[in-house]
Amino acid sequence: MPLVRIDLMEGRPPEVIRELHERVAALVAEITGSPIDRVRTYITQFPPHAWGIGGVPADVARAADVEARKQAALAREAADGAGAGPA
After folding, report:
1. Cα(73)–Cα(16) distance, rounded to whole angstroms?
2. Is the pLDDT of residue 86 over 60?
């Protein structure tokens, strides 16, 4: 049973995470010859301050990228909320 672990900085939309699970599992199954239902994927997302790049936390070293992801996530949430309609 192959197990693939992926660590990512948080902020990617759920559809990207789902696609990672699907495509990584398919690739591992193809390469190893294992049935896809035996392939396991585990994706961990962590906050930018928990990742260091050259001794500098990512929320500092990649502040523009982190902010862009945050704004994109807020825009997605707003769009999802706008489409919900009145309660």
Report:
1. 12
2. no
Handedness of CA 72, 73, 78, 83 (dihedral sign): positive
CB 48 within 8 A of CB 10: yes
Question: What's the 3-state SS for 42-54?
Answer: EEEEECHHHCEEC
Split at pLDDT 50, 70, 90, the class of 38 is very high
Q: How many Å separate Cα 10 from the centre of its chain? A: 6
Distant-in-sequence, close-in-space partners of 46: CB < 8 Å, separation ≥ 6:
7, 8, 9, 10
Predicted confidence at residue 45, as pLDDT, reads 95
- The whole-model pTM stands at 0.69
Q: Is the dihedral of CA 30, 14, 76, 81 positive or negative?
A: positive
